[in-house]
Amino acid sequence: MIFREDQSGILYQIQIPQDEEDIFLQLQSKGKLKYIKVDPKDLPQTNLHIPLFYKKNKNGNIIFDLSRIKPKAIESVNRQAKGYILNILINKDWGDTYEECIAELQSSATFLETKLLHILKPVKTTLTLSEIREKVALYLAGTYTQANLITELQNLGLTQAKINSYMTLFVQAADVAKLIYWTEQVWDYIAQIETQIKAATTINELENILNNIKFPGV
Q1: In the chain, which ranges are continuous DSSP H helix?
Q2: Rounded to whole angstroms, how far apart are CA atoms 116 and 111?
Q3: How far from 81 is each of 184, 190, 218, CA to CA, in Å?
Q4: Which residues neighbour 127 within 8 Å (Cβ) at sequence distance 6 or greater?
Q5: CB-CB contact of 6 with 17 (8 Å)
Q6: I want to staple 185 with a disulfide (CB 3.0 to 4.6 A). Which of 21, 108, 193, 216 is the partner?
Q7: What is the distance between the alpha carbons of residues 165 and 115, in angstroms, rounded to a whole number?
Q8: Are 152 and 114 in contact (CB under 8 A)?
Q9: What residues pair up with 12 in beta bridges, in sequence order?
């Protein structure tokens, strides 16, 4: 979509499927609309798939209005990130919408951590949910192993059946936490991209940023 602003008003590009022509709606100063055909060679050529606001100076040179393009670019990368996360979580059967998937992840994390706490609470009365979460985080970081955990559970006097049950829940909790951490990484990455977009001073710089987005993998 291309938005072109000049002395006549703002032009909104729309596509007419039957004849595949580029048609513009012109919003004039009094709020009236009229159709205008535009030669494609008069349009700016970029690889950006976001609205482009620009003007032409008296020499016919295109001047992009980055102050209006940047917010659209930020909206675009946020939609991409949300769609990227949703696609992966849907494939893992966490829900059908972004909000549903995130809520289900958070609910599952709390449920599993609480079950782990209840198993150990009778033999370790001072244990807290924060400590459970810390162990899960250390496990994901690779500094705390299943062997370490089994040794701790044995030292607490748990039966083998209890140990097996705890280990199963712990691994499930770690899998859920990994997905939650991953979604946070994606949004942290998007925050960095937003900073780069805001700092861009040319359309080419903005184009380079948007065309080189690589989301963190799970």
Answers
A1: 66-91, 98-120, 129-141, 146-155, 160-199, 203-210
A2: 9
A3: 11, 7, 13
A4: 117, 120, 121
A5: no
A6: 216
A7: 10
A8: no
A9: 3, 25
Range of the domain at 115: 74-210
Judge whether 103 lies within some domain: yes
Rg over CA atoms, the chain: 27
Within this chain, do residues 47 and 131 fall inside the same structural domain, yes or no?
Answer: no
* Residue 217, domain member (yes or no): no
Under DSSP, is residue 140 helix (H, G, I), strand (E, B) or coil?
helix
pLDDT tens, residue by residue, 108-133: 999 999 999 999 999 999 999 999 99
CA distance 136 to 65: 48
Rounded to whole angstroms, the Cα distance separating 99 from 110 reads: 17
Amino acid at 171: V
Span 123-177, pLDDT tens digits: 999 999 999 999 999 999 999 999 999 999 999 999 999 999 999 999 999 999 9
